[in-house]
Each structure stands twice: as C-alpha cells, then as structure tokens.
Amino acid sequence: MPVANQLHKLRDFSDPPVVETVLGVQFAPLSFAIPHFGLYWSRIQPEFPQYRVLPPLGHVREQFGAQSGSLIRKMGFEVVQEPDIRCWFLDRPGNQIIQVQRDRFIYNWQKISGSEVYPRYESVRGRFEAEWKQFGDFLDQGGFGKPEVNQCEVTYVNHLEYEKGWKSFGELNKVISCWSGKHSGTFLPEPEKVSMTVNYLLPNNQGRMYVSLEPVIRTRDAKEVLQLNLTVRGAPASSDQAAVLQWLDVGRQWVVEGFTDFTTDVMHNIWGRSK
Amino acid sequence: MTADAVTIQSQPTMRLESRQGRQNQDYFLRADTQGVGVIKLPPEWTWQVEPIKKVLGTLLLPENWDSYGGRTPKSQAAETAIQIIASITQADPPRPRVVPLGTGGIQLEWKKGQRELEVECRPDGSVEVLKIEGDAEGELCSACLPADVVRLVAWLMAA
Predict the structure, then answer these.
(1) How many CB pairs under 8 A join A and B?
(2) Distance between the two ends of chain A, CA-based, in angstroms?
(3) 20 to 30 Å CA-CA from B18: which of A80, A141, A145, B111?
(4) Given an 8 Å threshold on Cβ–Cβ distance, is B1 in contact with A261?
(5) Which contiguous run of DSSP H or E holds residue A251?
(6) Are A158 and A250 in contact (CB under 8 A)?
(7) Which of A57, A159, A194 is opposite residue B10, by nearest beta carbon?
(8) In chain B, where the domains are located
(9) What is the Cα–Cα distance from A165 to A167, expressed in whole angstroms?
C-alpha cells in the first residue's frame, strides 16, 4: 500500500498539541572536519542563513534481547584531532532546523511564535527526504562515500497547557490514560509535580519508543507547561533512502498511535480528534 | 501493550538538597535533538520557578520598553541569571527581584536586613555585583562568576 494511504489511516487531530517534529538518522562517524560544515552550509545557506554551534549528541544504539538495557551510548576515550561539534542551520524565521554532526543528520520543524499551523508529517517527511538527499549528494561529491545508517529517530514534542482540560497534577488522570490518580490509602495528598518515562518495545526488534512527561518552562513565553515527548528509535533495514523513510513511517505511526493511546478521550476532544 | 520500563517521579513537598553536579549545568544547553527551548524543572526546584519565569519574561519586552530607548534583554543575560538562580542551594533564601535593564542586561536584587546584593547580568552574559552593607559604600565586584554570586548570597543570608 502506498505510504500516503497508510498515513491517512492513522488517528488524527485538527488541533494537536505538537510543537515540534524531529526526523533524524545516525550513521557511522564520518571524517567530517570543521571546514566541511561550512562547505555544506554554503549549499543550504540561502534557505538556512542562521547557525548555532552546539556540543554533539552521543552515539546511541538501541539494544534488544539479552543485552537489553534499552540503549547503549558509546563511551570511552578517543583521540580527537579536531573539536567535535554539532551545527544547527536555521531558516530565517527559525521554524526549520537542520542539525549536522559527524554521525547525525536531523531535520526539525518547530513552532517559534506558537501561532504557526503544524505542517503535518507528510510535509515534514518530504522536507527531510529532500534535505537528506542533498546532504548525501554533498557527501558523495566530497568523497565521504555513502553514510552507513545505523539508527533512525522520530520525535514529537507536545506541550500540554494548564487550564486546557486539566488544572493541576491532581488531575493528571484527565490527561494520561494509564494514570489513575488514586492511591491505595488516604495518607498521601495529591502530587505536587509528576514526571515519568515509559518505554515500549516495537515488534521484531524494530525499535523502542520512549514516552516522557515532565514539567518545563517554555522559553518563548515563560509559561509553565507539561512536555510530553514521544521518541521512537531503531535501525532501518538498510542505509537506502527508501529503507530510512520506511522506518521513519513506522516510527511516526508509533508516535501517533502511542500518543493517542497514552492520552485520554477528554483531551482528544479538546485536540479535535477526527478519526 | 506492556510497557518495557516505567519510571515515575512524583515530587514530595519536602525540599531536597541540590546536587553538586547541577551547579554547572547549562539550562539552555540542547542535550537532545529537540529544538524548542524549554527549561526543565528538576524535582528539587521550588522557589526558583517564579524568578526564572520572570527572567524569561524580560526577553519578551519590546525594544524601547521603558520609552527611554531601553533594549530588549539578551538571551545571554537571561542564561546567566538563570544559572545563578539555579545554583543557589541554600534552603529558603530570600527571593530575588528581577529587573530588566535598559542596556539589554538583567539585574537580580536581594535584600536581607542591612545587606543588599545587586547582581547585574550583562548582555554578553558576564556578571557585575554590588555588595552593600548598611550605610557603607558599596563594594563592586566585576567579572564575578555565578559561583561567586552563590557565596555572596550565603553572606547575605547570614545577616
């Protein structure tokens, strides 16, 4: 079945609380030096004229079976000839970010003002596909070869605002479907704050989904919100573009269906659930 | 679907001592793939939340917010101010007053008894502190580190 048709079968919301969608790949580290970041930037600079330099993300691999400790971060000593960095390349309004480091390529779409309309997965996926292909062309022409993709990642960041279906952590059961809010006795008061992480395994070791819930202050408007992140990570069948996109579609399906299962019908109504 | 692993933290009302390691944490550092800016609220934070919201609120001021050409505070100033607030581990310290400055900086002000601290977080993220006791002339400390400010808050609290 074509991807577009499969995607339309997922549950849908007219006003979802999503504030960011992240699609990314991790690959075997390239011999990517500081000047290469600039060379790549020169290709995308007309559309992504801003940059930020950040510390690199760790190299992570999901583990399954007997080794299952969920994920392994590469640790140890390494002789690094050049500083290891991660570059953000942002478009003019800042809604789109391309993150590059020597073993990662990530595309983000994020809300900046809060009033933007979420462009939907199909659009974000299309942009990722185009930018990843362009990055691949750059690597190919620069003699880096084809990146050996070992992990893909889909992350959706949702901000659940207070007074929109719930008022305090004592009413978290109105938001999270698996949280009863009840104790076995009467001693404890309602919780002052709650944060939680829940992991789910995808079938056939396709990956793992991390659901995290934590209170945060959003910097754009100094507002306290509950951040609900869903991240799915795993290895694609191969490094081919088609295999990467196929894995991302599975990851996105888990995020959408997982988000719907993890939250309550009351909240679904507020977010305009249509399927 | 059975959860692979579940971790739940529910914050008790008891205030916890802050961990040493958190003192040097960069609260604006993006340590994951997320782009949307947030300040995560550790369970031990209680009084810190409101002043941090006020610091972030100053970034929303328009240019010329004071009608005297005041500049919108810079994010570097806010980062430093938040770093300082988050580094204060004393139980129940006096709450800082958060004041935007026309220079694009942010000032944190504390007062207890005869002692006062005015901590100017400059637009470039550097810090200058004015330490005042009673009617004596204030003592200026330039290029202070956030850790120095934490020690000065301890001095203030001993008043």
Answers:
(1) 115
(2) 20
(3) B111
(4) yes
(5) helix A241-262
(6) no
(7) A194
(8) 46-157
(9) 7
Residue B16 has pLDDT above 50, yes or no: no
Contact B49 A57 (CB under 8 A): no
Contact A199 B32 (CB under 8 A): no
pLDDT at position B104 over 80: yes
pTM: 0.86
pLDDT at B10 over 80: no
Task: Determine the distance in angstroms separating the CA of B98 from the nearest CA of chain A, rounded to an integer.
Answer: 14
Partners of A88 in the beta sheet?
A52, A99
The answer to whether the CB atoms of B12 and A196 lie below 8 A apart is no
Single-letter amino acid, residue A232: V
When scoring A217, A230, A261 by the number of chain B Cβ atoms within 10 A, the one with the most, hence best to mutate, is A217
Q: What is the pLDDT of residue A76?
A: 54
Q: Side by side, which strands form the sheet with B139-142?
A: B97-100, B106-112, B115-121, B127-133, B139-142
pLDDT of residue A1: 45
Quickly tell me which residue has 């993300």 as its tokens: A57
DSSP at A209: E
pLDDT band at residue B146 using 50, 70 and 90 as cut-offs: confident
Contact B20, B96 (CB under 8 A): no
Q: Which of A33, A20, A175 is nearest to A109 (CA)?
A: A20
Chain B closest-CA separation from residue A274 CA (Å): 23
Q: Residues of chain A whose pLDDT is less than 70?
A: 1-8, 66-82
Q: Which residue of A has its CA nearest to B43?
A: A193
The answer to whether the Cβ–Cβ distance between A208 and B4 falls below 8 Å is yes
Q: Closest by alpha carbon to A101, among A206, A151, A30?
A: A30
pLDDT band with cut points at 50, 70 and 90 for residue B136: confident
How many Cβ atoms from other residues are within 10 Å of residue A210's Cβ?
21
Least CA distance to A59: which residue of chain B? B32
